[in-house]
Amino acid sequence: MLFSIWVLAIGPRLLATTFDLAGATVADIQAAYAAGALNAEKLTGLYLKRIETYEPTLNAVLALNPRALEEARALDAERAAKGPRGPLHGIPVVLKDNFDTADLPTTGGFFGLKGSIPLQDATLVTRLRAAGAIILAKTNMSEFASGGAMSSVAGAMRNPHALDRAPGGSSGGSGVAIAAYYAPLGFGTDTGGSIRSPSTTNGIVGLKPTLGLLSRAGIIPLSLSLDTGGPMTRSVYDVAIALNATVGAEDPRDPVTHAALGRTITDYTRSLAPTALQGARIGVARSFLGQDADVDAVFESALAALKAQGAILVDVQYPETVLKIRNDLYNAVRKPEFKAQIAEYLATLRPGYPKTLMEILAMSEKLVSPRADGVQPNPGRLTLYRQEVKMPSLTDPFYRAAIEQGMPFVRDSLAAVFEANQVEAIVYPTNPKSIARVGEEPPSPSGVGAGAPTNSPYTFANLTGFPELTIPAGFNSNRLPVGISFFGRAWSEPRLLALGYAYEQATHALRVPVHAPALPGERIDY
């Protein structure tokens, strides 16, 4: 039934006469497939050509799937014989290199894991493959998902809108890859802004989902109380399609998914409507303004667009206590958990790789100069390792208080803001400051969400477990992307996507990056 609904949804698109790779949604790709103007093998070749052309300048890709074209041909043959499995049949996908893939290395951006092939796929990867997706590449990332937007495996990533600007962390490679349209769909992880920062910085759409909506099994952990994976795309529609394929039954490999039982839906595209903002009460968190005049100007234009679509805007204020404790609370959870949980992950790997954080630190301290294979020192992450090895165990009273009292306090306090103001979502600029230059990202108090200013909204979605959707809102005076976030209550993804879709359709702020322009053959008339 669901597949029939999807076929009907893309039916009108079959009348289109031009396929343009730069603006193509998954529905556009499937329409071109259905019309016989395109197949998975040709599409995969187009994306591989873009990667060949713009790498290593952008430095977004750590590993390519050498069997991608072969897998595409097999999926084309299956389509011809049986029809498509669904919307992701024959769709190339890129993954941040902390998602386990049993056929490609998974390094977490750490040079000491080069060549490490996990024993099994991450649950989310298994679901993507079952939906017919092609895992095209593993992307560069902040090392172990924290610190600056670089890895010791391959160095710094570059923003395709301005090569001297950082792409945000920690899912920077996925952000760059989707902005430069190496694929229509990517996945990142978010512990303190690591999907939202690179999404807004690269001018794309990204969703940090409710904790428990998607399984984290097989993702290298940074802090399991805060971690979640999520989709990064060039449209809200494709976020919905990605959720359809990856939201599923509770996963015994990730107990947090038990909370999603009865709270998910089968088709997230059904809530999308260009009229969704009419009459919607939207909170505006002005506490995060005043840090960058350019960003504030774009955000005010975004608010005007929301009002023009019929939204009712209500200024809201986060409790002062919550604003004051967030960074200390975040670090009280994040740093002790990494020390313990990275060891649990390393224990699952084959022999020959480090097994403890102390071993990771020792290897990193010995790496004092760049190597011929691209490996290079990562001083920012080394500083964090030195802090993390000193962290107490997870039985420490201060850590337990942060988990059992601090995080519930923040969650309940922000839930009360929604309730008291009767708002469906709260909006603010995703990154309240313009993009920093490469190597000049301001220090993040959390060590993640590289480039985040101190007065940043990022960590609230992680401390509460609530979802946040970021969408392109425009460009500043330096032609750098600015995004708007829609922050919602737990399990409100259908409504957040609806509001975000209506905003996106009214504004169309997506742009092709100047350093990744279209190539010949990417427009197909049919």
Main sheet characteristics: 11 strands, mixed
Total strands: the figure is: 15
Number of domains: 1
The Cα radius of gyration reads 21 Å
Please report the first level of CATH classification, the CATH class.
Alpha Beta
| CATH fold-type name | Amidase signature (AS) enzymes
Short description:
With 526 residues, this protein is of the alpha/beta class. The protein has helices at 2-10, 26-35, 40-54, 68-82, 123-130, 172-179, 196-202, 236-246, 293-308, 320-346, 357-366, 379-388, 397-421, 458-464, 493-507, and strands spanning 18-20, 61-64, 92-96, 134-139, 150-151, 155-156, 185-190, 205-208, 228-233, 281-285, 312-316, 425-429, 468-475, 481-487, 523-525. Helix 3 (40-54) runs antiparallel to helix 4, helix 8 runs antiparallel to helix 15 and helix 11 (357-366) packs antiparallel against helix 12 (379-388).
3D architecture notes:
The chain contains 15 helices and 15 strands. With 526 residues, the protein is an alpha/beta fold. It has a single domain, classed as Amidase signature (AS) enzymes.
List keywords for this structure.
disordered N terminus, 13% strand, alpha/beta, 15 strands, two-stranded antiparallel ribbon, Amidase signature (AS) enzymes, 526 residues, 37% helix
Topology:
Elements: H1 2-10, E1 18-20, H2 26-35, H3 40-54, E2 61-64, H4 68-82, E3 92-96, H5 123-130, E4 134-139, E5 150-151, E6 155-156, H6 172-179, E7 185-190, H7 196-202, E8 205-208, E9 228-233, H8 236-246, E10 281-285, H9 293-308, E11 312-316, H10 320-346, H11 357-366, H12 379-388, H13 397-421, E12 425-429, H14 458-464, E13 468-475, E14 481-487, H15 493-507, E15 523-525
Parallel strand pairs: 3-4, 3-7, 10-11, 10-12
Antiparallel strand pairs: 1-15, 2-4, 5-6, 7-9, 8-9, 8-13, 12-14, 13-14
